[in-house]
Amino acid sequence: MKSYLFVFLCILQCLLPLSAIDFVSNEDAYRANNLGVALLEQYKHEEAVERFKKALELRPDFPLAKINLAIALYNAQKLVESKQIVVASLIETPQSLQANYILGLIWRTENDQQESLAAFRRVVAIDPKDVGANVNIGQIFAQQRRYDEAIRHFQIAYDAEPYNTTAIYNLATALQRTGEREQAAELLKTFQILRENGAGTSIGLNYLEQGRYAEAAASTGAESELVDNAEPKIIFQEANIGLPPARPTRSPVSSGAVLFDMDGDQDLDLALTNPARIFRNDKGKFINATAVSGDYAKLNRDAATRIIAGDFDSDNLTDLFLVRGKSYSLYKNVGKGKFSDVTAKAKIPAKQDLVPSLTCAFVDVDHDGDLDIFVGGTGKSGNRLFRNNGDSTFKDYSAESRLSRETLAVSVVPTDFDNRRDIDLMVLAAGEPPGLYRNLRDTTFRDVAGEVGLNQKSAWTCAAAGDFNKDTFVDFFFGVAGGRGVFAISDGRGKFEIEDAPPGTESSSTAQFLDYDNDGLLDLIAITPKGFVVSRNLGNRWTDASNKIFNATADVANSSQMLSADIDGDGDVDLMTFDKRGSFRFFRNDGGNANNAEILRLQGRVSNKTAFGAKIDMRSGSLAQKLESYSASPAPAPSQTIFGLGKRVKPDAVRVIWTSGIVQSEIDFPSTVAKNNTPFKIEELDRKPSSCPYLYTWNGEQFEFITDFLGGGEMGNWASAGVYHQPDSDEFVRITSDQLKPRNGRYEIRVTNELEEVLFLDTVKLVAVEHDADSEVYPNEGLGIPTSGKQILYTAKKAESPLSAMSSDGKSVLPKIEKLDRNFYDSFKSLPIRGYAEQHELTLNLDDKKNYKGRTLLLLTGWTDYAFSSDNLAAAQSGKSLFMPYLQVKNTKGEWQTVIESIGISVGRPQTVVVDLTGKFVTGGREVRIVTNFKTYWDKIEVDTSLPNSNFKQIEMLPMQAGLRERGFSEEVITNGMISANYNKVLNDGRWKYFAGRFTRFGDVKPLLSSIDDTFVISKTGDEIILSFAAISEPPTGRKYTFLLYADGYSKEMDINSGSPEAVFPMPFKAMKNYPYGLNEKYPMGREKENIFDLYNTRLVRGGLPKIEAILIK
Length: 1114
Known about the structure:
- This protein starts with a helix and ends in a 13-residue tail after the last strand.
- Helix 4 (about 65-75) packs parallel to helix 6 and helix 5 (about 80-90) packs antiparallel against helix 6.
- The chain is globular, with a radius of gyration of 32 Å.
- Helix content is about 15%, strand content about 35%.
- A hairpin with an 8-residue loop joins strand 23 (about 510-515) and strand 24.
- By secondary structure, it is an alpha+beta fold.
């Protein structure tokens, strides 16, 4: 196993045997160490130091915590203490890469070039291609003007990591010094491109930039001291679970089989094909339910080779899809064990040949919340993708998706191989190199197998998938006809290394990675012509356990399929095998439950309901594990999410990354769950992954949530294929005088980045509008308003509720819109797609001023539950789209006539939209009708007919102080569906993913907010911007202030179908025509902006999720 993680396993061989250490205190020591690693990633160096010291208090001889403490001390600038630790560590382990590397950094900081050079040379003697060590050596040589030697090391670093900007720039500079100006110029061009698009990596001074051997390591459970090498007392015993003896079939193709929860009772039921049978699981015993299965019982004439289960129509009942010789079949679960053939109704395309496919899968390829269907090529026809339209019908999307290569596919694994949060497809085809189709997030795929090291051609037979080396990236096993199987092991960077699988895996016909002994390590079980082969995972090696856990009668040589799950509910993984003769056998795991296990049951809400494609991380003390959820045939992994825990009694934390992009963490696991084997249900939260920054003001007693804002500045929202919404970057936010009070002579305002997005804030100012105390002032705001771009202040005096308000169904909703009480108008029917409703009308009779020609303002205060990119994509597939609310009045014929094409929607929670109806009435009537399919919830609606009042004065204030700091997340408050926040309670639960790139460093950011100039405060999830304005004197008698916070900025979120949802770059700018912008546009990075960027944006953040331990930081 050649992954980077295993380098650490070799380093830590000196650890004490686990038997010599108290298990509980050892686990607590690992917990403290792992929390320290998470704190380091949050740049909380001093807190990390304390955690590592705590680990060493619990266990003084703990090499992992010692070297991590040295790293934390170095970053806390405590060089003397750090050096003492690494020097002592090198006495014990002179070959330690981390200790030598950290020592090299310390000597460089202390300006001792010779000692630093010697330390880094010891690193490259062991790891010649390490980028960080070669860059440091090159920089030392360059300082000594030994340019030829510097060039050699910079070149090694560049070759190893062609996108490392530090290596590129230093190599170019050294080449310039030696006269190689042409080559240097080309490199500098590359450097500039990487710098501008943010795609480059670097070696620098900050943690996570210092090199991989300067990164603290958390445990995984694969460390040698944590692995129990003793052979577990386990046997797989063939048992009768109620299935009748199989009748041999005349079909030349194998039977299909799938385990699934047919009736929602948490037991796994069984569906078989060829002939068709369904068995209900009754506490570990199967009862034949074929007779009541409806249309499914009729499936006997055309043999089915593959069957998969999934909820294709999102009704919380699991359906069945079958691949047959002449056709495909889709069976809808209508409840009570009955299935209806909806193949024709669902518009499932016809088969293109009479050759049965050998593999298929349910998979949400476009992350729109419903399950699509992939069917492997037959050798006579290509792979096929049937896209779910979201209305219980499908479309053949094979050609458009670029998946339709003609091939004989034997296995498909829907997986996120590169940890980019989207679902890719690994398609294994006989006699060809593996196909690894990267999801391009535009409903197309590209085969990148050759680029990532999967270019070996062989007579492939099967595939298994799982992160067996615990680097958080999926690994594969590929079976080979007539030869030993191979592992495709992820290198932790999106590429793979091929190496032989353990002996005995020759001619595997089916295989899975599963944890049969519940020790927290994924083992490999395969079926070969010689029977079962069991390769037990011992962390850094494999051992053959085949003959010890299967008796001689376990003849499964002809089996072509294997299913695994805790079928009998006793807390360990059992096996079922099936062959083409119609024979099926059950093997009960006796003894695996000597160790504990946590079994999860996932229920999607925004994601597909059966949660296929979800990624699940688990941490329990020293143990970490990642699993993925699949619905594929042949099955590459168990049919349940089962985490082995060893002797640990429960998980500390579990984190689910749903296909919707929602990240959900659970920490409250009762230890009894691990003991009585009841699946722990995790239902997806319908959490908004993004919105806009939150605004809080000091109201004299506390910081009060005002609204979220800058919604118009959201970038990259999917509108249609290749088209994204154009952002509107500025906004005035209304703040009443009750909501903003002086505090020690200042108005205190807080802007927080609470959700999964990056905020680019260009400028802020506070405007105090002094006006008559008996009137109100409103800015001209709302998304899609007809007067967008114009700065208008509306005054209103003694506005009143309309006389009546009627919903589409003719019912009065006046009580819901008379008061600002968060009892919202919601009389419309929501569609299954987030943010979408059926078309609905709200009819208002404004007042009794018939034939009134004066000014009339409609004041609508509320909020909108808006859709995200993936929602718009899902809607488009079924022909739906949102339209802005338009306003109608009655014409002379008594018909409704549209007079305002868009009145706009509230993008704040809440926000008041002002609609000027002056001159819009065609007749003397005062009825208006608002029509839309947005889910806009109005709280209060008023009508104002007062005369305009220009007797107001505006006082503009720039911030006297502006700072950026890390804060965390305010407690979420939900009132009748509307989300707000409690500033007084701060959480830090690692709930969001991070954009990759450079963010603004903490501290003073006032110069960045002085004007609209495209130099931004770039704020990460969990950040807070502190704004202070000098308080002004109280207004004169009879007057009052209404405050307006003006802000200009942009934000973008991480919806997979949004534009550029991974990285901070490309930077927005005022003159851009689109975002993401094309090659014809470029951020205006002149010398001045470059200097500002280098000065302020020094906080490097890696993309993706924070460590799962961050959930546990108190």
